[in-house]
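Two entries, shown back to back:
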Amino acid sequence: MKVLVAADAEWVRNLVRAAFVAPGQEVVEVSRGQDVRKAFGETEPDLVILDMQIGNMGGVATATDLRLEESGGRLDRAIVLLLLDREADRFISKRADADAVLVKPVDAGTLRRTAKRLLAERSAPLV
Protein backbone atom coordinates (compact mmCIF):
# COMPACT_ATOMS: atom_id res chain seq x y z
CA MET A 1 0.00 0.00 0.00
CA LYS A 2 1.24 3.44 -0.88
CA VAL A 3 0.06 6.45 1.15
CA LEU A 4 0.50 10.09 0.19
CA VAL A 5 0.34 12.44 3.16
CA ALA A 6 0.17 16.22 2.90
CA ALA A 7 0.80 18.15 6.10
CA ASP A 8 3.02 21.08 6.97
CA ALA A 9 3.16 19.90 10.59
CA GLU A 10 5.99 17.42 10.98
CA TRP A 11 4.19 15.60 13.81
CA VAL A 12 1.32 14.73 11.46
CA ARG A 13 3.71 13.33 8.84
CA ASN A 14 5.50 11.40 11.59
CA LEU A 15 2.21 9.94 12.78
CA VAL A 16 1.33 8.74 9.29
CA ARG A 17 4.81 7.27 8.80
CA ALA A 18 4.47 5.44 12.12
CA ALA A 19 1.07 4.04 11.12
CA PHE A 20 2.32 2.56 7.85
CA VAL A 21 5.69 0.95 8.56
CA ALA A 22 4.89 -2.67 7.72
CA PRO A 23 6.56 -4.42 4.77
CA GLY A 24 4.86 -3.50 1.53
CA GLN A 25 3.79 -0.10 2.84
CA GLU A 26 5.26 3.17 1.64
CA VAL A 27 4.58 6.75 2.72
CA VAL A 28 5.18 9.65 0.34
CA GLU A 29 5.24 13.04 2.05
CA VAL A 30 4.59 16.57 0.85
CA SER A 31 4.32 19.65 3.01
CA ARG A 32 2.30 21.88 0.67
CA GLY A 33 -1.20 21.35 -0.67
CA GLN A 34 -0.24 22.59 -4.11
CA ASP A 35 2.26 19.70 -4.39
CA VAL A 36 -0.37 16.99 -3.90
CA ARG A 37 -1.69 16.87 -7.46
CA LYS A 38 1.78 16.36 -8.94
CA ALA A 39 2.79 13.83 -6.26
CA PHE A 40 -0.47 11.93 -6.80
CA GLY A 41 0.14 11.73 -10.55
CA GLU A 42 3.74 10.61 -10.10
CA THR A 43 3.30 8.07 -7.29
CA GLU A 44 -0.26 6.75 -7.81
CA PRO A 45 -0.96 6.21 -4.10
CA ASP A 46 -3.70 3.95 -2.79
CA LEU A 47 -4.67 6.52 -0.17
CA VAL A 48 -4.26 10.29 0.22
CA ILE A 49 -4.23 11.69 3.75
CA LEU A 50 -4.69 15.45 3.93
CA ASP A 51 -4.26 17.54 7.04
CA MET A 52 -6.84 20.29 7.38
CA GLN A 53 -4.03 22.85 7.65
CA ILE A 54 -1.45 22.58 4.87
CA GLY A 55 0.24 25.93 4.47
CA ASN A 56 -1.63 28.20 2.09
CA MET A 57 -3.77 25.45 0.49
CA GLY A 58 -5.58 23.46 3.16
CA GLY A 59 -7.00 19.96 3.08
CA VAL A 60 -10.45 20.94 1.81
CA ALA A 61 -9.03 22.96 -1.09
CA THR A 62 -6.55 20.20 -1.91
CA ALA A 63 -9.23 17.49 -1.88
CA THR A 64 -11.45 19.67 -4.06
CA ASP A 65 -8.56 20.13 -6.49
CA LEU A 66 -8.09 16.34 -6.73
CA ARG A 67 -11.82 15.85 -7.37
CA LEU A 68 -11.81 18.50 -10.10
CA GLU A 69 -8.83 16.84 -11.79
CA GLU A 70 -10.61 13.51 -11.53
CA SER A 71 -13.83 14.86 -13.04
CA GLY A 72 -11.80 16.31 -15.90
CA GLY A 73 -10.24 12.92 -16.60
CA ARG A 74 -6.74 14.11 -15.73
CA LEU A 75 -6.31 11.96 -12.60
CA ASP A 76 -7.67 8.64 -11.38
CA ARG A 77 -10.04 8.58 -8.41
CA ALA A 78 -8.22 9.28 -5.17
CA ILE A 79 -9.27 7.79 -1.85
CA VAL A 80 -9.09 10.84 0.40
CA LEU A 81 -8.91 10.89 4.20
CA LEU A 82 -9.09 14.34 5.79
CA LEU A 83 -7.58 14.97 9.22
CA LEU A 84 -9.69 17.65 10.87
CA ASP A 85 -8.59 20.00 13.62
CA ARG A 86 -11.93 20.00 15.44
CA GLU A 87 -15.34 18.39 15.29
CA ALA A 88 -16.89 21.61 13.90
CA ASP A 89 -14.76 21.19 10.75
CA ARG A 90 -16.95 18.26 9.64
CA PHE A 91 -19.34 20.76 8.10
CA ILE A 92 -16.77 22.29 5.76
CA SER A 93 -15.16 18.93 5.04
CA LYS A 94 -18.35 17.82 3.25
CA ARG A 95 -17.48 20.27 0.47
CA ALA A 96 -14.27 18.35 -0.19
CA ASP A 97 -16.04 15.08 -1.09
CA ALA A 98 -13.59 13.19 1.15
CA ASP A 99 -14.07 9.45 1.54
CA ALA A 100 -13.53 9.70 5.30
CA VAL A 101 -12.64 12.22 7.99
CA LEU A 102 -10.97 11.84 11.37
CA VAL A 103 -10.71 14.51 14.05
CA LYS A 104 -7.22 14.95 15.51
CA PRO A 105 -5.68 13.81 17.66
CA VAL A 106 -5.72 10.31 16.14
CA ASP A 107 -3.45 7.38 16.77
CA ALA A 108 -1.63 5.07 14.37
CA GLY A 109 -4.07 2.23 14.96
CA THR A 110 -7.06 4.37 14.02
CA LEU A 111 -5.29 5.48 10.85
CA ARG A 112 -4.50 1.87 9.88
CA ARG A 113 -8.05 0.66 10.54
CA THR A 114 -9.55 3.56 8.59
CA ALA A 115 -7.19 2.97 5.66
CA LYS A 116 -8.00 -0.75 5.65
CA ARG A 117 -11.74 -0.01 5.63
CA LEU A 118 -11.45 2.55 2.83
CA LEU A 119 -9.37 0.24 0.65
CA ALA A 120 -11.75 -2.67 1.29
CA GLU A 121 -14.72 -0.50 0.28
CA ARG A 122 -12.95 0.47 -2.93
CA SER A 123 -12.30 -3.14 -3.91
CA ALA A 124 -15.75 -4.42 -2.91
CA PRO A 125 -17.85 -5.49 -5.87
CA LEU A 126 -20.78 -3.28 -6.79
CA VAL A 127 -24.11 -4.89 -6.06
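entry 2 starts here
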Amino acid sequence: METATISVAATEEIKPPLTGIGVIGWARKNLFSGKFNTVLTLLILFALVKTVPPFIRWAFVDSLWSSESQACKEAAGACWSVVTNNFRFILFGFYPYDQQWRPILAIALLVAFVIYSHSRRRWNKNLLIAWPLGLALMGIIMHGGIFFLPEVETEKWSGISLTLLLAIFGLSAAYPLGVILALGRRSRLPAIKALSVVYIELIRGVPLISMLFMASVMLPLFLPEGITIDKILRAQVAIILFTAAYIAEVVRGGLQAIPRGQYEAAEALGLSYYQKMRLIVLPQALKTVIPPTVSILISAFKDTSLVVIIGLFDLLKTTHVTLSNPDWMGFSNEAYIFTAMIYFVGCFFMSNFSRRLEAQLKT
Protein backbone atom coordinates (compact mmCIF):
# COMPACT_ATOMS: atom_id res chain seq x y z
CA MET A 1 0.00 0.00 0.00
CA GLU A 2 2.84 2.35 0.85
CA THR A 3 4.56 1.48 -2.42
CA ALA A 4 1.43 2.38 -4.39
CA THR A 5 1.15 5.69 -2.55
CA ILE A 6 4.73 6.54 -3.32
CA SER A 7 4.23 5.64 -6.99
CA VAL A 8 1.19 7.90 -7.31
CA ALA A 9 2.99 10.75 -5.58
CA ALA A 10 6.04 10.28 -7.78
CA THR A 11 3.82 10.27 -10.86
CA GLU A 12 2.19 13.52 -9.81
CA GLU A 13 5.61 15.10 -9.35
CA ILE A 14 6.91 14.17 -12.82
CA LYS A 15 3.84 15.38 -14.76
CA PRO A 16 4.60 18.30 -17.09
CA PRO A 17 3.26 21.70 -16.03
CA LEU A 18 -0.17 22.66 -17.37
CA THR A 19 1.35 25.62 -19.20
CA GLY A 20 3.50 23.26 -21.28
CA ILE A 21 0.80 20.96 -22.68
CA GLY A 22 -2.55 21.27 -24.44
CA VAL A 23 -3.84 24.53 -25.90
CA ILE A 24 -1.85 26.67 -23.49
CA GLY A 25 1.37 24.89 -24.31
CA TRP A 26 0.73 25.12 -28.06
CA ALA A 27 0.00 28.86 -27.78
CA ARG A 28 3.16 29.51 -25.78
CA LYS A 29 5.26 27.56 -28.26
CA ASN A 30 3.80 28.95 -31.48
CA LEU A 31 2.30 32.34 -30.66
CA PHE A 32 4.12 33.73 -27.61
CA SER A 33 7.56 32.10 -27.80
CA GLY A 34 9.41 35.42 -27.83
CA LYS A 35 8.96 39.19 -27.78
CA PHE A 36 8.71 39.48 -31.56
CA ASN A 37 6.20 36.63 -31.87
CA THR A 38 4.14 38.04 -29.00
CA VAL A 39 3.94 41.50 -30.56
CA LEU A 40 3.13 40.03 -33.97
CA THR A 41 0.39 37.81 -32.49
CA LEU A 42 -1.19 40.74 -30.66
CA LEU A 43 -1.15 42.87 -33.82
CA ILE A 44 -2.82 40.10 -35.83
CA LEU A 45 -5.45 39.59 -33.13
CA PHE A 46 -6.14 43.33 -33.11
CA ALA A 47 -6.54 43.35 -36.90
CA LEU A 48 -8.89 40.34 -36.78
CA VAL A 49 -11.03 41.98 -34.09
CA LYS A 50 -11.30 45.12 -36.21
CA THR A 51 -12.10 43.37 -39.51
CA VAL A 52 -13.84 40.02 -38.90
CA PRO A 53 -16.91 41.20 -36.91
CA PRO A 54 -17.72 44.01 -39.41
CA PHE A 55 -17.31 41.59 -42.30
CA ILE A 56 -19.63 39.03 -40.67
CA ARG A 57 -22.17 41.77 -40.02
CA TRP A 58 -21.91 42.95 -43.65
CA ALA A 59 -21.90 39.49 -45.24
CA PHE A 60 -24.49 37.69 -43.11
CA VAL A 61 -26.31 39.78 -40.51
CA ASP A 62 -27.35 42.83 -42.58
CA SER A 63 -27.25 41.09 -45.97
CA LEU A 64 -30.07 40.45 -48.44
CA TRP A 65 -30.35 37.16 -50.33
CA SER A 66 -33.51 37.26 -52.44
CA SER A 67 -34.61 40.86 -52.78
CA GLU A 68 -34.96 43.31 -55.65
CA SER A 69 -32.14 45.64 -56.61
CA GLN A 70 -33.84 48.69 -55.11
CA ALA A 71 -34.00 47.07 -51.68
CA CYS A 72 -30.31 46.21 -51.96
CA LYS A 73 -29.42 49.84 -52.62
CA GLU A 74 -31.06 50.82 -49.35
CA ALA A 75 -29.58 47.96 -47.30
CA ALA A 76 -26.54 48.31 -45.05
CA GLY A 77 -25.13 44.85 -45.72
CA ALA A 78 -24.16 42.73 -48.68
CA CYS A 79 -26.51 42.21 -51.59
CA TRP A 80 -26.21 38.51 -52.41
CA SER A 81 -29.38 38.94 -54.45
CA VAL A 82 -27.16 39.93 -57.37
CA VAL A 83 -26.04 36.29 -57.37
CA THR A 84 -29.32 34.55 -56.58
CA ASN A 85 -31.33 36.60 -59.09
CA ASN A 86 -28.75 36.10 -61.86
CA PHE A 87 -27.51 32.68 -60.84
CA ARG A 88 -28.33 30.89 -64.09
CA PHE A 89 -26.88 33.60 -66.31
CA ILE A 90 -23.63 33.80 -64.31
CA LEU A 91 -23.18 30.03 -64.54
CA PHE A 92 -24.46 29.34 -68.05
CA GLY A 93 -24.46 32.72 -69.82
CA PHE A 94 -26.13 32.78 -73.24
CA TYR A 95 -26.72 29.05 -73.44
CA PRO A 96 -30.44 28.60 -74.34
CA TYR A 97 -32.48 28.85 -71.17
CA ASP A 98 -34.63 25.80 -71.88
CA GLN A 99 -31.52 23.71 -72.69
CA GLN A 100 -29.44 24.57 -69.63
CA TRP A 101 -30.04 21.11 -68.24
CA ARG A 102 -27.42 19.96 -70.75
CA PRO A 103 -24.45 21.87 -69.27
CA ILE A 104 -25.70 20.82 -65.84
CA LEU A 105 -25.63 17.19 -67.00
CA ALA A 106 -22.18 17.63 -68.56
CA ILE A 107 -20.80 19.17 -65.36
CA ALA A 108 -22.39 16.40 -63.26
CA LEU A 109 -20.79 13.81 -65.53
CA LEU A 110 -17.43 15.53 -65.15
CA VAL A 111 -17.74 15.62 -61.36
CA ALA A 112 -18.65 11.92 -61.35
CA PHE A 113 -15.53 11.09 -63.39
CA VAL A 114 -13.35 13.15 -61.05
CA ILE A 115 -14.78 11.51 -57.93
CA TYR A 116 -14.44 8.02 -59.42
CA SER A 117 -10.84 8.73 -60.48
CA HIS A 118 -9.93 10.14 -57.07
CA SER A 119 -8.81 6.72 -55.80
CA ARG A 120 -5.48 5.56 -57.20
CA ARG A 121 -6.70 1.94 -57.02
CA ARG A 122 -9.00 2.63 -60.00
CA TRP A 123 -6.17 3.83 -62.25
CA ASN A 124 -6.02 1.30 -65.06
CA LYS A 125 -6.38 1.01 -68.83
CA ASN A 126 -10.16 1.08 -68.63
CA LEU A 127 -10.09 4.45 -66.88
CA LEU A 128 -7.58 5.73 -69.43
CA ILE A 129 -10.04 4.85 -72.18
CA ALA A 130 -13.08 6.09 -70.25
CA TRP A 131 -11.79 9.64 -69.79
CA PRO A 132 -11.51 10.51 -73.52
CA LEU A 133 -14.88 8.89 -74.15
CA GLY A 134 -16.39 10.82 -71.26
CA LEU A 135 -14.97 14.14 -72.48
CA ALA A 136 -16.29 13.40 -75.97
CA LEU A 137 -19.73 12.63 -74.49
CA MET A 138 -19.68 15.95 -72.64
CA GLY A 139 -18.93 17.75 -75.89
CA ILE A 140 -21.80 15.93 -77.65
CA ILE A 141 -24.20 16.85 -74.85
CA MET A 142 -23.16 20.50 -75.03
CA HIS A 143 -23.20 20.79 -78.82
CA GLY A 144 -26.11 18.51 -79.69
CA GLY A 145 -27.20 18.08 -83.30
CA ILE A 146 -27.72 14.34 -82.92
CA PHE A 147 -30.50 12.19 -81.53
CA PHE A 148 -33.10 14.41 -79.84
CA LEU A 149 -30.67 17.20 -78.86
CA PRO A 150 -31.03 20.47 -80.80
CA GLU A 151 -27.74 21.97 -81.93
CA VAL A 152 -26.29 24.80 -79.83
CA GLU A 153 -23.58 26.84 -81.54
CA THR A 154 -20.33 27.24 -79.64
CA GLU A 155 -20.77 31.03 -79.64
CA LYS A 156 -23.47 30.47 -77.03
CA TRP A 157 -21.29 28.34 -74.79
CA SER A 158 -20.48 30.53 -71.83
CA GLY A 159 -20.22 30.72 -68.08
CA ILE A 160 -18.83 27.94 -65.93
CA SER A 161 -19.38 25.34 -68.65
CA LEU A 162 -16.93 27.17 -70.94
CA THR A 163 -14.44 27.66 -68.09
CA LEU A 164 -14.48 23.96 -67.22
CA LEU A 165 -14.32 23.00 -70.89
CA LEU A 166 -11.19 25.06 -71.47
CA ALA A 167 -9.62 23.92 -68.19
CA ILE A 168 -10.35 20.18 -68.32
CA PHE A 169 -9.69 19.67 -72.02
CA GLY A 170 -6.64 21.93 -71.82
CA LEU A 171 -5.05 20.22 -68.82
CA SER A 172 -5.87 16.73 -70.11
CA ALA A 173 -4.11 17.41 -73.41
CA ALA A 174 -1.28 19.61 -72.12
CA TYR A 175 0.08 17.11 -69.58
CA PRO A 176 0.93 14.24 -71.97
CA LEU A 177 2.18 16.74 -74.55
CA GLY A 178 4.45 18.27 -71.91
CA VAL A 179 5.85 14.84 -71.01
CA ILE A 180 6.58 14.12 -74.68
CA LEU A 181 8.32 17.48 -75.06
CA ALA A 182 10.44 16.82 -71.96
CA LEU A 183 11.51 13.45 -73.35
CA GLY A 184 12.21 15.10 -76.70
CA ARG A 185 14.42 17.74 -75.10
CA ARG A 186 16.50 15.00 -73.47
CA SER A 187 16.58 12.89 -76.64
CA ARG A 188 19.89 11.86 -78.18
CA LEU A 189 18.51 12.59 -81.66
CA PRO A 190 19.67 16.13 -82.58
CA ALA A 191 16.63 16.99 -84.73
CA ILE A 192 14.06 16.00 -82.10
CA LYS A 193 16.03 17.71 -79.35
CA ALA A 194 16.40 20.92 -81.37
CA LEU A 195 12.70 21.05 -82.24
CA SER A 196 11.73 20.49 -78.61
CA VAL A 197 14.12 23.17 -77.35
CA VAL A 198 12.93 25.73 -79.91
CA TYR A 199 9.28 25.05 -79.14
CA ILE A 200 9.67 25.19 -75.35
CA GLU A 201 11.81 28.32 -75.30
CA LEU A 202 9.67 30.09 -77.89
CA ILE A 203 6.39 29.42 -76.09
CA ARG A 204 7.79 30.21 -72.64
CA GLY A 205 9.14 33.47 -73.99
CA VAL A 206 5.72 35.00 -74.72
CA PRO A 207 2.72 35.60 -72.42
CA LEU A 208 -0.50 33.63 -72.78
CA ILE A 209 -2.37 36.79 -73.78
CA SER A 210 -0.25 37.17 -76.91
CA MET A 211 -0.92 33.55 -77.89
CA LEU A 212 -4.65 34.06 -77.42
CA PHE A 213 -4.51 37.15 -79.63
CA MET A 214 -2.53 35.24 -82.23
CA ALA A 215 -5.06 32.40 -82.21
CA SER A 216 -8.04 34.75 -82.32
CA VAL A 217 -6.85 37.54 -84.64
CA MET A 218 -3.77 36.50 -86.60
CA LEU A 219 -4.50 32.84 -87.37
CA PRO A 220 -7.66 33.51 -89.45
CA LEU A 221 -5.61 35.83 -91.70
CA PHE A 222 -3.40 32.92 -92.78
CA LEU A 223 -6.21 30.48 -93.49
CA PRO A 224 -7.45 29.92 -97.05
CA GLU A 225 -10.59 31.75 -98.02
CA GLY A 226 -13.75 30.00 -96.89
CA ILE A 227 -12.02 28.03 -94.11
CA THR A 228 -12.71 29.04 -90.52
CA ILE A 229 -11.80 27.51 -87.19
CA ASP A 230 -14.06 27.84 -84.19
CA LYS A 231 -12.90 30.56 -81.78
CA ILE A 232 -13.22 28.29 -78.74
CA LEU A 233 -11.10 25.65 -80.46
CA ARG A 234 -8.43 28.24 -81.27
CA ALA A 235 -8.35 29.43 -77.66
CA GLN A 236 -8.24 25.81 -76.47
CA VAL A 237 -5.23 25.01 -78.65
CA ALA A 238 -3.42 28.14 -77.43
CA ILE A 239 -3.95 27.14 -73.79
CA ILE A 240 -2.78 23.58 -74.48
CA LEU A 241 0.39 24.66 -76.28
CA PHE A 242 1.22 27.26 -73.63
CA THR A 243 0.68 24.97 -70.62
CA ALA A 244 2.53 22.05 -72.23
CA ALA A 245 5.72 24.10 -72.57
CA TYR A 246 5.82 24.82 -68.83
CA ILE A 247 4.96 21.25 -67.89
CA ALA A 248 7.80 20.07 -70.14
CA GLU A 249 10.39 22.02 -68.16
CA VAL A 250 9.06 20.71 -64.85
CA VAL A 251 9.12 17.12 -66.09
CA ARG A 252 12.63 17.63 -67.50
CA GLY A 253 13.75 18.63 -64.02
CA GLY A 254 12.26 15.41 -62.66
CA LEU A 255 14.07 13.36 -65.30
CA GLN A 256 17.37 15.00 -64.39
CA ALA A 257 16.77 14.19 -60.70
CA ILE A 258 16.70 10.43 -61.39
CA PRO A 259 20.10 8.88 -60.60
CA ARG A 260 22.09 7.64 -63.57
CA GLY A 261 22.13 4.20 -62.02
CA GLN A 262 18.40 3.82 -62.70
CA TYR A 263 18.97 4.29 -66.43
CA GLU A 264 21.90 1.89 -66.41
CA ALA A 265 19.97 -0.73 -64.44
CA ALA A 266 17.09 -0.57 -66.92
CA GLU A 267 19.50 -0.92 -69.84
CA ALA A 268 21.23 -3.84 -68.12
CA LEU A 269 17.89 -5.62 -67.94
CA GLY A 270 17.58 -5.33 -71.69
CA LEU A 271 14.61 -2.96 -71.61
CA SER A 272 13.84 -0.92 -74.69
CA TYR A 273 13.69 2.89 -74.55
CA TYR A 274 9.89 2.79 -74.30
CA GLN A 275 9.94 0.17 -71.54
CA LYS A 276 12.70 1.97 -69.66
CA MET A 277 10.79 5.25 -69.63
CA ARG A 278 7.36 3.76 -68.94
CA LEU A 279 8.36 1.29 -66.22
CA ILE A 280 11.44 2.76 -64.55
CA VAL A 281 12.18 6.43 -65.20
CA LEU A 282 8.89 8.26 -65.72
CA PRO A 283 7.09 6.83 -62.65
CA GLN A 284 9.90 8.13 -60.43
CA ALA A 285 10.29 11.45 -62.26
CA LEU A 286 6.58 12.29 -62.35
CA LYS A 287 6.25 11.44 -58.66
CA THR A 288 9.13 13.77 -57.81
CA VAL A 289 7.62 16.76 -59.61
CA ILE A 290 4.03 16.46 -58.38
CA PRO A 291 4.08 19.77 -56.41
CA PRO A 292 5.43 22.03 -59.21
CA THR A 293 3.29 20.24 -61.81
CA VAL A 294 0.12 20.87 -59.83
CA SER A 295 1.14 24.51 -59.36
CA ILE A 296 1.30 24.89 -63.14
CA LEU A 297 -2.04 23.15 -63.60
CA ILE A 298 -3.65 25.41 -61.01
CA SER A 299 -2.21 28.48 -62.76
CA ALA A 300 -3.52 27.19 -66.08
CA PHE A 301 -6.98 26.69 -64.56
CA LYS A 302 -7.04 30.29 -63.38
CA ASP A 303 -5.54 31.61 -66.62
CA THR A 304 -8.59 30.40 -68.55
CA SER A 305 -10.19 33.65 -67.38
CA LEU A 306 -7.89 35.48 -69.85
CA VAL A 307 -10.08 34.35 -72.75
CA VAL A 308 -12.30 37.29 -71.83
CA ILE A 309 -9.96 39.54 -73.80
CA ILE A 310 -10.78 37.75 -77.07
CA GLY A 311 -14.52 37.95 -76.60
CA LEU A 312 -15.30 34.57 -75.02
CA PHE A 313 -17.89 34.66 -72.26
CA ASP A 314 -16.36 32.55 -69.55
CA LEU A 315 -17.44 32.65 -65.89
CA LEU A 316 -15.65 35.95 -65.27
CA LYS A 317 -17.18 37.58 -68.35
CA THR A 318 -20.75 36.51 -67.56
CA THR A 319 -20.27 37.99 -64.08
CA HIS A 320 -19.09 41.24 -65.66
CA VAL A 321 -22.08 41.30 -68.01
CA THR A 322 -24.42 40.85 -65.05
CA LEU A 323 -22.86 43.85 -63.34
CA SER A 324 -23.32 45.97 -66.49
CA ASN A 325 -27.08 45.78 -65.89
CA PRO A 326 -28.10 49.17 -64.41
CA ASP A 327 -30.21 47.39 -61.78
CA TRP A 328 -27.19 45.60 -60.36
CA MET A 329 -24.45 48.17 -60.76
CA GLY A 330 -22.48 48.79 -57.58
CA PHE A 331 -22.64 45.22 -56.28
CA SER A 332 -19.40 43.97 -57.82
CA ASN A 333 -17.96 42.89 -54.46
CA GLU A 334 -20.65 40.29 -53.92
CA ALA A 335 -20.58 39.02 -57.52
CA TYR A 336 -16.81 38.71 -57.70
CA ILE A 337 -16.62 37.07 -54.27
CA PHE A 338 -19.00 34.39 -55.58
CA THR A 339 -16.86 33.93 -58.70
CA ALA A 340 -13.67 33.80 -56.64
CA MET A 341 -15.13 31.08 -54.42
CA ILE A 342 -15.80 28.91 -57.49
CA TYR A 343 -12.17 29.28 -58.60
CA PHE A 344 -11.00 28.65 -55.04
CA VAL A 345 -12.94 25.37 -54.81
CA GLY A 346 -11.38 24.12 -58.04
CA CYS A 347 -7.85 25.13 -57.03
CA PHE A 348 -8.23 23.76 -53.51
CA PHE A 349 -9.43 20.41 -54.83
CA MET A 350 -6.40 20.07 -57.12
CA SER A 351 -4.01 21.12 -54.36
CA ASN A 352 -5.55 18.75 -51.82
CA PHE A 353 -5.56 15.86 -54.30
CA SER A 354 -1.89 16.44 -55.11
CA ARG A 355 -0.96 16.28 -51.41
CA ARG A 356 -2.86 13.03 -50.96
CA LEU A 357 -1.31 11.56 -54.10
CA GLU A 358 2.18 12.58 -52.99
CA ALA A 359 1.61 10.95 -49.59
CA GLN A 360 0.35 7.73 -51.20
CA LEU A 361 3.31 7.52 -53.55
CA LYS A 362 5.89 8.29 -50.85
CA THR A 363 8.26 5.35 -50.47
